[in-house]
Amino acid sequence: MCGIVGYIGPRSAPPIILNGLKRLEYRGYDSAGVATIAEGEISVRRDVGKLKNLQALVGTNPLGGNIGIGHTRWATHGAPSERNAHPHLGSTGEVVIVQNGIVENFLELKEDLIAEGVEFKSDTDTEVIVHLIEKHYATGIPFVEAVRQTLQHLRGANAVVAMSTREPDKIVAARMGNAGGVVIGIGDQEMFLASDMPAILEHTRHVTFMEAGWMTVIDSNGYEITDFEGQPVEYKSQKISWDPVAAEKGEYKHFMQKEIHEQVRAITDTIGTRIDWKTGKVTLPELNLTPELANKINRIVITACGTAANAGMVGKVYLEKLARVPVEVSIASEFRYSDPIVDDKTVVMAISQSGETADTLAAMVEGRNRGATLWSIVNAVGSEAMRIADGCIPMHTGPEIGVASTKAFTAPLVDQYLLAMALADLRGLLSPKDQLAMANELAQLPTKIGTLLDREADVEKIARAIKDIDHCLYLGRGVNMPIAYEGALKLKEISYIHAEAYPAGEMKHGPIALLDEEMPVIAIATQDQWYEKMISQLEQAKARGAPVIAVATDGDQRVADLADHVMWVPDSSWLISPILTVIPMQILSYHVALLRGCDVDQPRNLAKSVTVE
Ligand code: AGP
Q1: Is there a catalytic annotation at residue 608?
Q2: How far away, in angstroms, is 304 Cα from ligand 1 center?
């Protein structure tokens, strides 16, 4: 999704902006651009494709200036091209802007502007904004007022950042709705703006997150925030503790590989301070969970997208089994328009890595409007999904850069397990003995994940064996059924292999027709209550000639005899098993994609944060 960076201060703006854009590459983009003001003029450089193209362009055609804005674009209106890339310059050459998000009513605005004689140079919705700002600015009002008046015309959700040669000592930014965050970075006699923290972390950790409906004017000495009416708003700045090194690849080839390996630390941190190891009691301090609330809840609706929704499907099993609360998992893009039945005894719980997924945020708002208690499990610190919830479980995984989510899948599994334990305890459903036993099993999780990571080379061999397939079928049952979905999603998004997932019991109702030598079956067949049924599915697949790749419990000879390849996982209770079985799935997808020469961290057509509908 689009990324924005802005700088004003004593230093040369272009390298700071280009570096910032580099740190936002994980969001996905198809073109990039930068604009600065130097000697009273705006200069713009833009190019399609990777940021290195823009860097090369700035190298051969340098930019000056101590004030500038930059953008990585993920095309929504108008094809990826130089002319559609941001920043967009107005007709007078005095105003330049970037936008993240969408102007829904751009067509009618564009028609009006064309009727007034404005010439458009791009196919974007964004260009209407710069022309409207110019139109208002021409009446002699201050730049900030021109931006403010422009916002009154716009419908949609976006973040807009603008600057002008007539007031070259300031940058104006506005955030309308939930199309993505804007963070203001406060430096020493210099200021920054960005869509996300990694873009400015190397310069400052002192930040203010802008809410929807806020505008800011920054100059090198500070900033002011108002609402769209120009009234001052109450805001807080804060110090962020992320280590910039954590946003680097370090020793790994790809962020995805690094993030797969970070799961030992992520899960350790997730369990970390939340368990009293003497009693097994769980505390989730940011959730504001009281005994009254725990006993009042009669339903939980988990809402999320993609990998986060798959994590929710595992959470449903945990919460229903342990806390005996009925749970529904509702895909956020459906929930938001479903006229949902929700009341004040319902918890709507969002799961989101980025905390800025448009559908998930809209689903949260829908839940809130209907009286539900709003919880979230979120990774990105300070994100919207974290801030608007009544209670939150922060993921504690650190920034996830690879577009394919890995550690932000396993962390919420553990978070939901902890939540289920806490709720069960408060609802009088968990004996002290069971609580302690569960805590003890959680304590062993990081070591078991470490064991799985040590087996990467074995999984890579399997990846070599299947790298040329065109299709495959993932099967799982019970608590591991969502792992089949997650395994298939991981493979398709980074290797572009067609992968379908089914609850294994459904195979006989249709997908079995697909099976032959060309259609491998990847199945989770660990030793749990569904084991015999899974063995039977594997036998049926073999009988139709399909190659079988199984995820099995260490030492299981029956599966070894049946399957062509086995990805082994350490023994565990059935509830904990998905936190382990997903790891070989992630490693397999990573190596298949790598062997096929795919761009693992930035797969085609995908964005890390999907901040538009
Ligand atoms: C994960 O591998 C995917 N790229 C995608 O499905 C993702 O999980 C989804 O877009 C939700 O994102 P979020 O967790 O940031 O809300």
Answers
A1: yes
A2: 8
Q: What is the pLDDT of residue 434?
A: 96
Which of 3.40.390.30, 3.10.290.10, 3.40.50.300, 3.40.50.10490 is the CATH number of 255-453? Answer: 3.40.50.10490
Q: Name the residue with tokens 């965050």.
A: 181
Ligand 1 binding pocket mutation candidate from 26, 196, 305 (most atoms within 8 A of CB): 305
Structure tokens belonging to residue 419: 């939540």
Distance 134 CA to ligand 1 centre (A): 37
Ligand 1-lining residues (CB < 6 angstroms):
305-308, 352-354, 357, 360, 403-405, 493, 606, 609-610
Q: Which residues of 40-70 are buried (b: 16+ CB within 10 A; e: fewer)?
A: eebbbbbbbebbeebbebbeeeebebbbbbb
Fold agreement (3-247, 456-595): no
Q: Which amino acid is at 449?
A: I
Give the CATH class of 456-595. Answer: alpha beta
343-354: average pLDDT: 97
What are the start-end ranges of the E strands in 49-137?
Answer: 67-73, 88-89, 95-103
- pLDDT tens profile 526-564: 999 999 999 999 999 999 999 999 999 999 999 999 999
Q: What is the pTM of this model?
A: 0.79
Q: Looking at domain 3-247, what is its CATH homologous superfamily?
A: Aminohydrolase, N-terminal nucleophile (Ntn) domain (3.60.20.10)
Q: Per residue in 59-88, pLDDT tens?
A: 999 999 999 999 999 777 788 899 999 999
Share above pLDDT 90 across residues of the chain, in percent, rounded to a whole number: 82
Domain boundaries, the chain: 3-247, 255-453, 456-595
Question: What's the confidence (pLDDT) of residue 90?
Answer: 97
